Structure formats: C-alpha cells, structure tokens
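Sharing a chain and its predicted structure for anyone who wants a worked example. Both blocks are below, sequence first, tokens second.
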Amino acid sequence: INTAKGFFYLSVPLIMVMIGFQMAKIYDLKHYFILIRNAGNIISLIFIIFTIQRVGFNAFLSPYTEARFIVGSGSPVCVLSLILGFFSGKFGLDIYRNRYERWVAIILNLTAIYLFASRTYWVVLILFILLFSLKAMKKENLLIILGLLLFIFFLIFIWVNSQSDLSFANSLLFKLINSLNEIRIKEFKTFEEINIYFRGYEAFRSWETYSNGTLLELIFGGGFGQLVDLKIEILLAGSYWKAVPWVHNGFFFILVKQGALGLIFIILFYIFFIKAGIKDLNSLSRDKQFRGILMISITLSLVITNFVDCGLFNFEMSILLITLGFLISLNLK
C-alpha cells in the first residue's frame, strides 16, 4: 500500500499537466479563463456560506482560530480567479461583462481567501500580485507601493515579536513571520519542539533516511514504497505514525523516493516552465504576456509550496498544474 501511495503522489504532476493539455483541445484561452473565473466564484461562495453556517460571523473576526479547516483548507482556483479579476483587463482579456461583475468576483474571492486563514494562500497571492504588478503598473507607482508594503511588513514583524502570547496555534501572522523557523532542518530533541517544528524535524529525518542509503539509492532513491523513519510516534491525521510515506517538504519527498536523479528532474521541470513563461513575457502580444506572467507565477508558487506542503505532489494544488499544462500546450500549437 505504501508503494501505491508513493506512486500516486509522484504521478500527480504528470497527470495534471496532461489534463491541462487535453483541456487545451476543448477551450481557447478566453474560455479557459472564464472557466477558472466561474470555478473560483462558485467555490468561494460555497466556502463563505458553509463557514457562516457552521461558525457564524465570528469567523470574520478571527478566521485562523474560529474557522480554519471547518469547511476545508481552501483552493488555489480562488487565487487564480482573483488574479483574473485584478489583472485580466489590463492585458486586453475581456472575460467580464462589466466592471460590477468584476468587482463582485474580486470581493467574493478575496473574502474566501481571508476565511481560508492559510499562510500558503496569502504568500501565493502576494507573489502573483507582485509579479503581475511588475508588468502592469508604472514603475514609480510600483516603487511607492513596494516601499509601503515593506514598511507595513516591518511594523507587523516588530508587533508580532513583541507579543509574548502569540504562537503557531493562535496567530496566522505569527505563523507567517516565523515560517523559516518552522521549516528549518534540525534534529529537535523534545516532543514539544518536534510538534511545533514538525516540518523541519521530518525534513531532517528525510535527509537521514536518504543519506543512509546505498549508492544506487542515493542516485535513484529508495523507490515508491520507501518510508521516512521519524524515530518517534506522532499523531498525524488521526493516527499515530512512526514511519511515514509522505513528508511536507516535497524536495526531500522526491529525494527519498527517486534520489538525486528525481530531484534533478524536478528542478528541470521548474526551469522548463520558467523559460517558457519568460519567452511569452517578452512577446509583443498582451495575452501572451499575461500567459507568461501566469506561468512564471504558478511555477514559483509550486516551488514555494513544495517546501511547506509538498505542493508539487499535493492534489490540492492540481489546478495550478492543470493550468501549466494548458498554457504550455498553447505554446506548442
């Protein structure tokens, strides 16, 4: 069963990109974006309604403590839909009938993302906005906004670190500010530290599992069924595990399963889509420029999420991979 799980997770990127290829035979660019827009709006509306139904309006006061995971963890299609609302018109992509429809979509998706209370989705959204703004905004306005954002982040950083009662359990801002501490690779000793910094701890155990392999395992990995020995029993998803088939850090996940060769392949996967995105970005066509920024944004998002949620192999991120497949197929036509 562990072999089957490993094979399934490792096949996710290929399957989703191929689905994107097939969708390009059905939809042109405009109608695919309309599909994404509608999917984002529908999922956002459903998420908001169910959150209010189950938690009440308290969810809006503190979504991280009151509403997180009550309905689900969220969906990146809402981020894509929001980006279409913000930037599609600036690149000549007419996917909204009027500005009122566009603003309703923006408010709907932004509200849902707020209720997701997910550090991952906020980081991905900010990345998308920054990359699109680099192309869509005037340089002087962009510099002012970037300066303002850095100043706000600096103030938040100071405030969060001055509050002794904040922790990973009760504050999204604390979790965001301390993200690098949470994923640092280290052999934590106490059970409390392992619970708090579990992503870093399991990454350490993943490296230990990989580095103790034979020469062939270092090159080709331990195979689909290779487990990571945690050296301690820990409660994960309702069950106690001492050895796990999946880890949060996708780079260590591929290293354990497929070795250095697998890691090189994944890096080449990222480079391929980044280069394709840059090629479209340098085009004179506005819709190609939009495609290029979107491809770069999605690829970098998959790099970032792969550190914390095994993003490249996580079914939750499948719409990003499907969109990559769709966009690259347009380049091959």
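Comments welcome. The chain has a mean pLDDT of 88.
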